[in-house]
Amino acid sequence: MTKKPADKIAKSPPDGEPTSSQRLDVWLWHAPIIKTRSLAGRICVQNGVRINGHRTEKPARRIAPGDILTFALGHKVWALEVLKIGTRRGPAAEARTLYREL
């Protein structure tokens, strides 16, 4: 078995420092647009989500501030601009700072 070079190993940021990108399913759960992370993953796989106009069905796809997300949930089509990366699933007032509805 070969080891990855040290520069290829993913490093998590020190506590308290925001990351520059985040998994799509985790962000949707932190936002909290979708109730559970597993449901967020299923919506990505079954419905597909557009990130900056490009369809993805991968919940692990990375998103960053400035990205535009478009997806259907129930009878509503959501169009959101990612403003910040979430660090937790917090109260509604905190969650509203993560995105802007378009």
Order of helices and strands: EHHEEEEEHE
How many discrete domains?
1
**Would you identify the CATH architecture?**
Roll
Shape: globular
- Identify the CATH homologous superfamily: RNA-binding S4 domain
Global mean pLDDT: 86
User: How far is the first residue's CA from the last residue's CA?
Assistant: 48 Å
Class inferred from helices and paired strands: alpha+beta
User: Which sheet architecture does the biggest sheet show?
Assistant: 5 strands, antiparallel
Would you give the CATH topology? Structural Genomics Hypothetical 15.5 Kd Protein In mrcA-pckA Intergenic Region, Chain A
- Arrangement of strands in the largest sheet: 3-2-5-6-7
Helical run tally:
3
How many strand elements? Answer: 7
Oligomeric nature of the chains: single chain
Unreliable sequence segments? 8-12
Biased composition (Basic and acidic residues): 1-10
Keywords: RNA-binding, Stress response
GO molecular function: RNA binding
InterPro entries: S4_RNA-bd, S4_RNA-bd_sf
